[in-house]
Structure formats: C-alpha cells, structure tokens
Amino acid sequence: MKNKLLFFSLTLIALVVFSLVVTAQEPVKIGIVSPKSGNYADHGEMERIGMYLAVEDFGGKVLGRPIELIEVDSETNPDIASRRTKTLIEAQDVKFFLGAVSSSVGIAVGSVCHELGSIYICTNANSDTITGVDANKHTFRVPPNMAILVRGAAKYVAENLGKKWYFVTHDYSWGWSGTEWGRKMLDKVGAVEVGEVKIPMNTRDMSSYLLQLVNSGADVACVTVGGFDGIALYNQMGEFGIFDKMKVWWTLADYPDSYAIPPEQRGRYGMMEIYWKATPELIEFSKRIHDKYPGAIANVTETNSYHGWLGMKALLTAIEKAGTTDVDSVIKSLEGLIICDNKQPDPTYIRPWDHQFIDTMFFGHDIPGAEGDDITEVLFTAPCKDFARTMTENPIDLTK
Amino acid sequence: MDLLRTENLTKKFGELIAVNDVNISIQEEGILSIIGPNGAGKTTFFNLLTGYLKPTSGKVFLKGEDITNLAPYDIVHKKLSRSFQIASYFPEFTIFENIQMGVFNRLGYSYNYFANINKLKDVHKETEKYMKMLDLTEQKEMKAKFLSHGDKKILDIAMCLTVEPEILLLDEPTSGVSGTESTKVFNFIKNLSKKMKIVIVEHDMDIVFSISDRVVVLAQGSILADGTVEEVRKNEDVQKAYLGGFTEGGYEDAISGKSK
Amino acid sequence: MKTKNNILQDPYLYIFIIFLVYPFLPYIGKYRSVGTELLIWSIFALSFNLVLGYSGLPSFGHGAFFGVGTYAVALTLLHLTSKDVTISLILAAFFGGLFTFFYGFIIKKKRGIYFSLLTVAFSQILYVIGFRWDEVTGGETGITGLQRGGFLGIQINNPITYYYFVFVLFVITLLVIRKISNSPVGKVLLALKQDEKRAQYLGFNTERQVWFIFTISGIFAGLAGGLHGLLHLSAFSDTLHWTKSGDVVMATLLGGGLANFYGPIVGAIIFISAREILSSFWDNWLLLYGLAFVVIILFIPTGLLGIVERIREKKHFEQFNNNRNNIGSKNTQEIT
Amino acid sequence: MNTTLCLALLFNGIVLGLIWSVIAIGFSLVLGVGQTINFAHGLLFTFGAYFFFSISRNTSFWIAVIAAPILVAIMSLFLEVVLVRRVYGQDPLFGLLITFGFAIAMEEVIRMVWGKAAYSVSTPIFARGQLILGNFVYSRFRILLALFALTILLLVLWFMSKTSFGAIVKAGMFNSEMISALGHNLPLLRTLVFVMGGLLAGLAGVIGAPLWSIKSGMGTDVLMPGFIIALIGGLGSIKGTIIGGLLVGITTSLAVLVIPRFTDIIPYVMLIAVLFYKPKGLYGEVTILGEVRE
What we know:
The complex is a heterotetramer of chains A (400), B (260), C (336) and D (294). By secondary structure, chain A is of the alpha/beta class. Chain A contains 13 helices and 16 strands. The relative contact order of chain A is 0.13. Chain B has helices at 42-49, 72-77, 95-106, 121-133, 149-161, 179-192, 205-211, 229-234, 236-243, 250-256; strands at 4-13, 16-26, 31-35, 57-62, 65-66, 80-82, 167-171, 197-201, 214-219, 222-227. In chain B, the strands form 2 sheets. In chain B, strands 6-7-8-3-9-10 form a 6-stranded mixed sheet, sandwiched between helices. Chain D contains 11 helices and 2 strands. A two-stranded antiparallel sheet of chain D has the order 1-2. Classes of the chains: A alpha/beta (400), B alpha/beta (260), C mainly alpha (336), D mainly alpha (294). Chains in contact: A-C, A-D, B-C, B-D, C-D.
C-alpha cells in the first residue's frame, strides 16, 4: 500500500514540474512568409538565411523562451500569402511575421496582420505605399523605399553621368514610383527628360523597348525595372550596345541581378541597399553565409539576406526591450528603436510615425569584365535620413 | 405540290464532286428507294437534305419552303427526320431514356431547367406509346450500348419516329443485320409507310425490289435512272454501272439478285 | 416521394452534416478560412461540372470567370460608399454570367481541343488586363484592404458568421444545380455529350444549349469568385492565370465529376486541403502537385466516385446479361 | 514616330516571329498527328535552354548547340512512351492535363537541380556587336539567331513536303485510321513525330536561352504564343505556322507603339478572330473534332 502512495505522489510532483517547465519554455512563434516555390524562390531563400543567422545571434532564445520559426510559402502570390498568414494567426496564434519579396505580398500580409492584430516586418519590398497609403500600425518596413533611393542618387547622376535622362519604367506601381521621384528631382539637379518607355510586367523580349531607347540620344537611362524582367533587360542591353551609347542608372540595384549577367556585358550604375564589403562585420557575415549555405545563389551579403537578418534582429531586440510578447508594447519598443550593431557604418533608426527603417545606402558601378564575387565598386555612400519623405510629403496617421 | 424537291443540288469536297447537279421531286405516296454503288453520294445526299452539310450550289425545298441553309434541328421541326448508316443513339442512356429525348423536344421541354423528369406524366405516356410500338418494353431499363445490332437499328428508327415526321429518310436500315432481324426491320418499315413518306438508301436488292414503289439509281453523284422497279431493271445504263460491262449472260441473274 | 431509406443513401445529407459541423470539429475546425475556402471551391467545382461532366466540354479557362467575380466584388466595395456586400455579390454573379454569355456565343460551336485552347486564350486576355491595368485593378499589387459589411443587414464580418453565410449559399447552389442536372435540360446535355449529331436530329439546338449552360456555370463561378474576394478582402490577378484554371479541372476529375453529381465536392475537399497540407511541409511541393495530375489522369480518370459508378454499371450489365439470354431466346421462337 | 523606329520594330517583329514559329511547329505537329495538346512543349523548350547553358559552360558553344536538342529529344521520347501514349484518342483534356502536370513537376525538378536563380548565356565572340546603318541599330547576335531559326523552318518545310516520312505524317493528320490501314505503324509514327516536336523545342531552347535569359518559368511564357501561332497557321501546315508566326510577331512588335502595356493580348485576340472566321486556321486543311458541322 505504501509504495503505491509513494509512486502516486512522485508522478504528481513530476507532472507539476513538467507543466512549470513547459510554460516557462512556452516558445515564441514567429511566422516567416517568403517565396519557397515559383520564380522568386531564390530571393526568398536568401531572406530566410539572414533570419536564421539573426536567430542564431540571439542563441535561439528571446525572453528566455525558445524561438519557433514557422515558415509558409508565399509563392509570390498575394492571395495565397494572405490566406496562409490568416491560417497561422487563426490556428497557431502567431503574433509576429517577417518576410515578403514582392510589394503585392507585402501589402497583402500587412493588411491581414493589421486586421487580426499581429506585427509584420516587411523585409524586402520597396514600393512607397507600404509605409505610405497602405501603411498601418502593425506593419514595419526594413528596405528603403523609392523616394530615398532615387533622391539619394539623382544629384550625383546629373553631375557625373549626364543631364539628358530617358526613363525606363516597369509598368506597375513600384516602377512608376521610381520614375515619379526621378521626374520630381529633374529641375532640382538641372536634368531634363528626353523620353520614357514603359515595360509591362513579365516581359521576356525587351528588343522593341530597347530599340526606342537606343536612338533616343539620351545621356542617362534611368531604369526602375526589377526581378527577372530586370535581369533580362540588363542582359539584352549588352546585346543592343546600350552601354556604348549612354550611361545606365538602375534606381534599385540588387547584387544577384548583376551577378547573373555575363561579366563582359555588365556596366550599369545603381543604388544598392547594402554593399558587402562596406564594413569588416559585413565581410565576416558574407563568409558566414558562404560556409553555412554554400548552395545559396550569392555567397556574399546581399539585399535579401541582410534585410532578413536586420528585420529579425530588430524584432527580437524589441521583444527583449519590451520584456513581453504583447503586441502593442512590442510596437511601442520598435518605434524609435536604434540598432547600433547593425554591421553598417551608421546605426539603423526605426521612424515612429511611418515605421520605416532608416540607415545607409551605397551608389555603385558594375565593373565590366570583373570575375568572382567582387563585381561592383562603390562611388559614394548616402545616409537615408536626408532623403526620406517628410511628414508633409507623406501625411499618414498610424494611430487610427 | 411535291413533298421534297431539289434544284441542281451539288456538293464538292475540294475537287471531288460527291453530289452532282441532282434534280429530284418526291411526291406523297409510297416508298422511294435510292440505290447505287458505294461512294455514289447517297449518304452525302441525305446530309444535304437534312442540313448537316451545306451544298456548294443548288437548293432544297420541303413542302415548297426553301430549307437549304437551315440547321438539322430546324429541319426536324418541319417534320423531316432521318436515321443513320451506322445506328446512332445515346449509349449510356437506357432505351427508355433514348426514346424519351425525342419526346422531350416535341413536347417543348428542351429549355426546361427545373421540371422533375419523373413527374412529367405526358412525356412518360408518350414514350411508353413508342416503346410498345417497337416491343422493346422488356429491355426498358437496359443501357442502349448492350443491345444487339438489329435492336440498335430499330431503336435508331424509333428515335426518328418520336419527332412524328411526315418524311422519314432511312440510311441502310438493314445493313449489317442478320437474316432473322432484317425481316423484323423489313416488316416494321412496311407498316410505317402507311403513315408517312419513306425514302430508303439500301443495298439489299430483294428488299429494294419487293418494297419500293419508285427507285432512283445514283452513280458518281448524279441520277442514272428514276422510275418503277420494272423500268429500272430494264435500264441499260443501270446494268452497265452495276456490272461494269459483264458478259451478256450474267446481266439477268446479277440484277435479279439470285447470285447473292 | 423520397422513401426513408433513400434519404439515408442520398450523399447530400452527409455533405450537409459535415459542413454544418465543420467549425466545431476538433483540431481542423479552427481552420475556418480553409473551411470557407472548401465551400467556395465546391460551389465553383459544381458549376464547372455542368460544363465538363454534364456537357462534355473541356473548358480550361474557367478561372477567368471566377476571377471576374472577385474583381467585381472588390471594385464595387472600393468605389461604393456603403460597405453592404449584397450589391457586390449580385454584381459578381452578374459579371460572371455576362462574360460567359459573350464568350459563350463565340465558342458555342467549338468542341474538343479548340474549345479547350480558346477558353485558355480568353482567360489569358483577362489575366493580362487584370495584371497590367493598374489604374483599375491595382495590377500586380491588386486591390486590398476591403471591409466586409453586412448582407441585407446581417453582419457577416466575423469568420464564423461568414463561414455559415457561405454555407447557406453553398446549400442553395447545390440544390439549384442538382435541380438543373435532373431536369430535361440535364438529360439534353448528357445526350449531346454522347452524340451531338444525334441530339441535333432530335430537334435540339445543341449550340444554344452549350451557350446557355456555359453562361449559367459562369454565373455561379462569378458568385464563387465574389465570395473568395470577400473571404480574403482582396482581389488579385493570379486566379485569372490559365495555370490556375487547372485546379478546378483537377478537383472535379479527382472527385469523379465525370461520373457522379457529388464528385466535384469530394474532389474540391481533397484537392484543396491536400494542396494546403502539402505546401506547408515541403519546399518543392509543386513536384508532387504536378505528379498528382499525371497519376489521376492515368489511373483514375473517372475519379474516386467514378470507380463506384463503374462497379454499379458492371452489376447492371451482369443483371441484364442473364435475363437478356432468356428474352433473346423468347424473341427468336416468336418470329420463326 | 520616326520611320527608323518603325522599320526597326518591323524587322524585330520578323525576328520574333521566326523564333516563335520554331516553337509553334513542334506544338502543331504533335497536335496534328497525335491529336494531343502538348502543354509540356514549353517545358521541353526550358530544358533545351538549361542543357544548352550547362553544356556550353563546361564544353564548347557548338557542342552545346548540337547536344542540347538531342537530349531534349530523348526526354520527349521518354515522355511520349511513358505518359502521352496512354491518352491518345481520349478526351483532349486528358492529354492537356497529363502534359501540364508533367510540366509543373519537372519545372520543380529544374529548380532543384539548377537552383532557383536566373542565368544568362554570354554572346559568343563571333556574334557580338551591333549592325549599324545610319541610326538603325540592331543586335548582330539576334540577326544570326533569326537566320538559324529560318534555316530550321526551311529544313522542316523541305522535310515535310519532300520526304516520304513527311508525306506519311501529313496523311496521318487527315485520317489516322487510314495510315494504319495502309500498313504504317501509327503508334511508331506518333512517337517519332512527338520526338521531332521535342527536337524542335530543344532547338528553340538553344535560341531562346541567350535571348531571353534562363529561368525555370520561361517555358510557360513561351507556350502561349507557340500554341496560338500553331492554331492561327492551321494544324500541321508548316507554311501556315511560319506565316502565322510572322503575322503575330510583327503585329505584337509594332503594337508597342500603340498599346505598350497590352501588347501581350494581341496574339489571343488574333487567335479568336481567325478561328471565328476560318475554323481550320489560315492554311489548315484538317480540323480535329473542332466543329460538329460546317
């Protein structure tokens, strides 16, 4: 009889201890919505690598609780991305989300999180509206938007590359925003527009557009074209000898796009969101990426991997600072957060009124014929805060 | 006034002239047979009459009205119906359902999206009438595709009747049908001709000569001979076309069909 | 009158109960938006089966009419002041029907390969317009941030009430489509699928029948699209892309739409939930998704319920085979 | 609009049309003889591009030009024997779906094997630079690719009209039962035509790779103009496909001046217009169960 009593009490104690440990151990769930299939899967992969490394920096824990990453495939399809985000919130009560390679997915996930009260840090979408007309209390955006990127480069381009600009616009909201900001800067920097060609989304053959550009007599082609269309355009520019006739300025230049072009056909100028050789920490970070993920499409720090890392780091820092996973208090601690150890020359500052991350950007030039990883030279670095939109230019109120 | 009339009806497939300038007028009474070697244009002629093919030139008149460019479903509503060389029916439907289709159309249910079929008493009664007429009632619930070849031919003809035609075009009703069943089809056509004008395309000379009031012979798409059974039997060109210049003696037996 | 036992046999009863109880089921019940999605896809697949299963028309661009419904809802909610969704859903069904009415007229004479490829072509036209006409359709970023007001005053904003709102529409759709498929027109469609020439010679204007049924299926496809738009409070051009039209075709075939009225529902449930589960477990899930197409077509072309039908038909054939022998013998004695 | 630009766009339309025709012919032959919609044709094109990219990087440009199409032809043999052969004669949707499913699955395999990034093929040295006549500038490499496409088209035209195999293939389109009745092995004929389609898709891939840069989704983008031109030209008619390709290529290229954003709609609108007036296509003699009656 006695040992039965003993046995019973021991199991009871074990149960109590176990439940205590479990609650203390209750994991912090973070949802990652980025493309795993479809055309942008490679950008998605780099983004996720950055996030894993950030979690690693935090030792896999925040507030003493393990971090549980739940990944869903956005398929670069806003419809599917919003449905899967909603499912994670409904079924697993996920409070924090990161990711998105295209603006449409960013906007869609942002609106779902706002509707159901979760925080969303958009790591790789540049259209102005995410921290503009589509902004909301729960959405933050890591990469600089087109206003910052274009205004940051306009003066240098006019002074050093040429005054007669020809706009090459990706014919959808993101592409227009790049050209609009370019047009606004024309008279400020003493440049003049000599024409524009709009390239529809998902175009393969660029010849009919390049023919309009090649004999336009422009000094500079101001190009806002991204993704695979961007790669196809850059590649076919070499074919039509655009680089011999004029300078080419890409308002937003991603490292993987230059890397995909055969060395002898490179030669564009462009504003880059990160330059992997800017600081020793970034060089070390690139080595870390290369060692842990040799198969990745780029073995240096580039836009997607860096912003994935920075977004995750900001979120975890804010949660530690807020001391709780309650959404409103984490938002409070995110707003105005300054991240010094961001591996960049200057710290990153999260503006409270539009939830835009502000740090530095790099204007570079692809060196024709350069082999290996070191394919771009940096002409100057620019602080984003001097070119970001002011409250008057972007009147939004996130408190509503 | 003739029931059905064609004016220099012609049909060309590229250079091939399938039906060549046919002028024929079909009156009320009796059974008309159209005979001729394979490829003489018999089936194409039927297709032209019933709107399945558009003629290259020429016109078709039904009771004086020009029906040349009408579609088959409009011509059928003008009481001209036809069966097919290869019996065509709805294989997955039961026999009852096959016959029921024609009744649906005639009683005006073709655009009725909501009626419950089992509750349509008028359709049910009408279909039973045709089923009895063809003594197919025992196999009522059997899928048409399991029927014997002869029964399929009869079903095909029965479906033509559901339209209550005044003219019935039968395309080789007994072809491929074994002895016992072809007599069944033969008798069936016989008593049908009392109620409506029948035009048959047929190869079996015994049937042609014993059943038809008038015979038209088609060769290379044009009419070779047109008249009573006797006139056609005697006709020189018919013998030549059918036998291709056989020796003298052979004409008689070939024509009379004994050698079959 | 339906006797007691064949009510129990009627699959409609089970489908009704499963969907009625779904939100309260343990574990899976929480996934309300997936549940609503299954209902919407069942409406879409049922209406699509009127074209594929009943009329034998291989349409491969039905996603276009679904997408048109989504955009109709999104645009009306965007531009209309009141957040009431009644008008937008009516417009979704209306425009679904309008597009199928016009395009149906163009392709009512086409069959087989031409029909498939022309429907793909049409859905691509709508896709390019939806994808690039930024001013109206929001282009690649689509239309987002809509609010779901009431339907004739009933509040349907929270997920549960919206689920049951879609459930009611699903039940109505199912009864209407079942009525059509058991009506004389249903029989005419099955007839023209088996032998269109024969049907024409019985007096049926088969082109017009194809035209009308194509339009009716478009109306329901538009409605389903509209409900999809209200579920996600957004509209994107992706559903219009021809590769997405394959989903409803596969769902209908998998379930056995060619052989059984309830096939599309079974197919929609299996196909959509498989896609959701598959994609959350494996990066390269598209590999299995593609192979599923191949396996279904190769091994179960008539779908799951198709297998049931085939067994039933074998019994039907044997039953008639033995009694036909005695009928046969009776007939022959009679004549000779 | 200055005339040089229109001239350049017209010339560009011809180049585009020729390249699209090479893709369309493969699709048209398979559709004509095998009566199956081969939606894996785009995928075979993609494999042609990827094989060309990998082989040209490791060996030489010229070995790749020959090896890539042959590899694709072998792959299409596998596809035909294992899958497509089982759906001949069935509902056309089955052929479409089975090849479509295969294409989705294999596209994922491409991403697994070659990774998800986009690649570009460097222009061979002999083809670099531009043809400059006054201010008419055009890429020399594109002209060479167009000539390469033209030779392929002329070869197929000669092959189909002059050789006995070509005659059997043409007859096969009119009446496949007749072919087997005359003692020709119809299944073998269909396999050979399918492999021929695969070879053409591989060749088109070799042309497309340097032109449009290589990504796993490039097949679906190219499939649409391919099947549209095949239908506009008329099934199995090589002459029709070439003329159809030029027509669509030129109209799409010039339309950039009128509706730059919606030029992609042009092929679809042309298809619906042509099929509405001439159901068999411009030069098509055969309709595959396309119409119930005239």
